[in-house]
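Give me the fold.
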Amino acid sequence: MEEDLAPMEESSTELVSTKELGEVAEKGSYHLKDHTLRTVFDFPVGAAVVKELLDDPVYAATLKRDFGRLSSEGNFKWGSLQPEEGKFTFEKADAIVKFAQENNMQVHGHTLLWAHDGNEPKWIKEYQGDKQDWERLMKKHITTVLKHFKGRVQSWDVVNEGIKQGGKYVNSIWYRKLGPDYILKAFKYAHEADPNVKLFLNDYGQEYGGKKVKLILDIVDQAREQGIPIHGIGFQLHTVLRMEPWKINDNLKIFADKRLLIHISEFDVSVRYQMPKIFPLSDALARAQGDKIKQIVRGYMENVPKKQQWGITTWGVSDKTSYFNKGYENADHDYPLLFDKNYKAKWAYRGFIEAGLGR
């Protein structure tokens, strides 16, 4: 698509008629001739990647052209890095870092601890020991990982999804064994292992505010009182077309007012919740998704001071490999990302770019 195509109109996208949904999105790509995600923004636009997909030349070319930071969907998690006690396997994560370095990209590590028992390796669930043993176990993992990647990974999610939406701690194995202080201890050990890396508390649902946001802010205050650095907040933002941007903006501003770095860390916009039985993606929904993304990206830029904008990372590259589509043939269950299953840029991509261009 040529650059001089008229910008998308600002409009309400909350209600889309069945008639409008009948028109299938046109074939082709909505790239702008002279702009990419890497060239338009002052902050890095990232993508969560999977090591095995780096061998796909189209996948790799898309990353090289448009993304300035890589995260990983799973290759930096505990089960991948330490699948057996004391046995660290860095090959896949190292391959991602190597790809990033070769292409002048930053790396964001995701994640040192994930506060959900189902996502821990079997040996962790079966581990026997007292509180001191568990703390040594956590410290060893964090220290080993941070030192291995020192100077090559610029930021880390230290704890992922540790807070419930109602403002309570997730009853994870780490919470049960070490109590609520496990979060602060994890940040302490991460900082000791690599004092130069930026450390983030990553979670979902902050856009809804309430008790969850309050507890996160309380944890930040506790950390500051103890001299433990929590540099930023990972604002996942797996969201849907019906989400009101003002809610996102209000809560971005709350964290910004705390002088925290803010990373929209797992961004995607589901359209399935809008009209789940309409396939393939219609032009009306494709444009609505692009408009919503433009509003959200613009809101991030307007409500987070520049020096606190750590960037925006999409949770995947194309609809083909989105976690929304795992287990569904042909990647036609949902269309949450910027590129379609053939790696063509969608209206979603164009909306993202237009926010950066101020259109």
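Residues 16 and 284 are 7 Å apart (CA to CA).
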